[in-house]
From TrEMBL, chain A:
Keyword Repeat: no
Alphabetized Pfam families for the sequence: ABC_tran
Keyword Nucleotide-binding: yes
GO terms for biological process, alphabetical: L-amino acid transport
Organism, scientific name: Neoroseomonas marina
Name this protein carries in UniProt: ABC transporter ATP-binding protein
Domain of life the protein comes from: Bacteria
Sequence ranges assigned to domain ABC transporter in this UniProt record: 4-235
Family the UniProt entry places it in: Belongs to the ABC transporter superfamily.
UniProtKB/TrEMBL annotation, chain B:
Pfam families: BPD_transp_2
GO terms, molecular function: L-isoleucine transmembrane transporter activity; L-leucine transmembrane transporter activity; L-phenylalanine transmembrane transporter activity; L-valine transmembrane transporter activity
A GO CC term assigned to this protein in UniProt: plasma membrane
This protein's UniProt keywords: Amino-acid transport, Cell inner membrane, Cell membrane, Membrane, Transmembrane, Transmembrane helix, Transport
Family matches, as InterPro entries: ABC_transp_permease (IPR001851), BCAA_transport_permease (IPR052157)
Protein family (similarity comment): Belongs to the binding-protein-dependent transport system permease family. LivHM subfamily.
Compartments (UniProt record): Cell membrane
Principal location class: membrane
UniProt keyword Cytoplasm, yes or no: no
Provenance organism: Neoroseomonas marina
Alphabetical GO biological process terms: D-alanine transmembrane transport; L-alanine transport; L-isoleucine import across plasma membrane
Protein name listed in UniProt: Branched-chain amino acid ABC transporter permease
Transmembrane segments: 12-32, 38-58, 65-85, 91-111, 142-159, 188-209, 221-249, 261-285
Its membrane topology: Multi-pass membrane protein
Length: 252, 288
């Protein structure tokens, strides 16, 4: 059984303007699925529609078979799905410990035991428990953001471009943590710009173009597909894709 | 001259600490709800009258009268929020600020209609000032100073250690993320308005204790409160305290140089200077 099932999701920022025009996907427990695509393809908008930050105009979202379409963020969180946004994903004026406590806001009685478990998984957070989040490096803040999200023991973890702005080393380290989180049984759906590296660590990949599923399949196979490589991955025939999914060859 | 300066400094620190109480209320509401609540002056007046009524009509001791001032003003603040401000939420911060200004005028005139324009005094024993060499401090001043410090300590503990206080700080820091973590923004807004207005009421009563109570008690404060919050950085809790003490001291020092009637100029000058030179204020990050 899948943890997260999305069928024909429609929606966007204005009633008449759908950025997401019919996205379908499924993520099983313990599985890591990455969503890649050009800028403007609607990747981050999908995550906002799933978590109630935007209201879907059509389609269905189910968590463990339970319909959660259009529920507000709090209800989605209670149902077991949590989002780590791309930017401003920690409370900068709160300490590491307070940030983690906010991750367990709805079940404060369990905060202490959950905090111990999260700090055990991310020892960096234990070392810096009294540090203000705004004084941490980008990579450390991403780890804190993931730790905060895991405080609620989610069934489904949504990550919006977790490596944006990180150094290559920090990005590799973070991908390792994402992989380990999926291996612990959490269903992880990750939107990423860093397509090649994301596909390397993912079980499956979904390519979004203009708000629709364009390609999907096992991530290693997709990463080897010459058409996908041309579209995303650079190297020989350095290719980039515009918002409509049209490949534009550039000189190597 | 040095003695006069030091005496003004002592008076300024005490006055500034008392001013910090309503300034904290103002800045807390701004931090969480993102608009300047200009009803804060009228709410301070509500607190001054509530405390006065509790003390003189009900015979309450000062601490209990202060708690009554807090509670009555919290209710009045929620009424202002729900009746006047919230319906204009979608129109933006400027409309909400104007609505709060209008609601403040209504409150002030309702008090004038009920209690008249007479000056009212608390039921307090007349005490001789304490003298320390050349300096003098009134026992009532010291008591007010201690009550203001206690109110600030309680607020600090509430924000630091309670789940609701932490949620308030989280919403002030990052509203969208707080929403994603399950915080109910309506409840947090209501608690913030109640606490912010309550603090304004306590501040109004403390200032009423120092002077007297009349319908303009809060109106005379509003510019100093706003200047303190702007100086400290709108939305910054430590900034409001530092800003209020700086304004208190500056107002007392200004009295040495100018006619006391021009004391209000200090607030205007500080607001103009901060907005020109450092719009984020001393501790604020919002404008940067």
């Amino acid at each position: 059984m899948t943890a997260l099932t999305v069928e024909g999701l429609l929606g966007g920022y204005a009633a008449a303007d759908h950025v997401v025009k019919g996205v379908s996907l499924a993520v099983a427990p313990g599985e890591l699925v990455c969503v890649i695509g050009p800028n403007g393809a609607g990747k981050s908008t999908v995550l906002k529609l799933l978590t109630g930050l935007l209201r879907p105009r059509g389609g269905r979202v189910a968590l463990d078979g339970r319909d959660v379409t259009g529920l507000p963020p709090r209800a989605v969180l209670e149902a077991g799905m949590v989002l780590v946004p791309q930017e401003r994903n920690v409370f900068g004026t709160l300490t590491v410990e307070e940030n983690l406590a906010m991750g367990c806001f709805l079940d404060a009685r369990r905060a202490r035991s959950r905090m111990a478990a999260v700090m055990d998984r991310f020892p960096l957070l234990a070392e810096r428990r009294r540090q203000l989040a705004r004084t941490m490096s980008g990579g450390q803040r991403q780890i804190l953001a993931m730790g905060q999200a895991l405080m609620s023991e989610p069934r489904v973890l949504l990550l919006d471009e977790p490596t944006a702005g990180l150094s290559p080393k920090a990005a590799t380290d973070l991908f390792g943590l994402v992989r380990a989180t999926a291996a612990s049984g959490v269903a992880v759906l990750m939107v990423e710009q860093n397509a090649l590296q994301a596909m390397e660590i993912s079980d499956r990949a979904l390519v979004l173009v203009d708000g629709r599923n364009a390609h999907e399949g096992p991530a290693p196979a997709l990463a080897r597909d010459p058409a996908i490589r041309r579209l995303f991955l650079g190297g020989r025939g350095e290719g980039r894709m515009d918002a409509t999914g049209t490949a534009r060859e550039t000189s190597p | 001259m040095i003695e006069a300066l030091l005496q003004a400094l002592i008076n300024g620190v005490i006055a500034g600490t008392i001013l910090a109480v309503p300034a904290l209320g103002f800045t807390a509401i701004f931090a969480v709800l993102n608009y300047p609540n200009f009803a804060i002056g009228a709410l301070a007046t509500v607190g001054a009258y509530a405390g006065w009524a509790g003390n003189t009509a009900l015979g309450l001791p000062m601490v209990a009268a202060l708690a009554l001032a807090f509670a009555a003003t919290a209710v009045a603040g929620l009424a202002v929020q729900w009746v006047a401000v919230k319906p204009l939420e979608s129109a933006g911060a400027l409309m909400m600020a104007i609505a709060s200004l209008a609601a403040g005028l209504v409150l002030e005139n309702a008090l004038r209609f009920t209690f008249g324009n007479d000056l009212r005094g608390y039921d307090l024993p007349l005490l001789r000032d304490w003298r320390f060499g050349e300096f003098r401090v009134g026992p009532q001043q010291v008591q007010n100073f201690a009550l203001a410090l206690a109110a600030m300590a309680l607020l600090w503990a509430f924000l630091r250690y309670s789940r609701t206080g932490r949620a308030m700080r989280a919403v002030a820091d990052n509203r969208d993320l707080a929403l994603l973590r399950g915080v109910d923004p309506v409840r947090v807004a209501a608690v913030t308005v109640a606490v912010g207005a309550g603090l304004a009421g306590m501040g109004g009563m403390l200032i009423g204790l120092d002077t007297s109570v009349d319908p303009l008690v809060g109106n005379r404060l509003i510019l100093s409160i706003f200047a303190a919050a702007v100086l400290g950085g709108l939305g910054s809790i430590p900034g409001a305290v530092a800003g209020a003490i700086a304004i208190g001291v500056a107002e007392e020092l200004a009295v040495l140089a100018f006619n006391p009637a021009y004391r209000l100029v200090v607030g205007f000058v500080v607001i103009l200077a901060v907005l020109t030179l450092r719009p984020a204020g001393l501790f604020g990050a919002r404008a940067s």
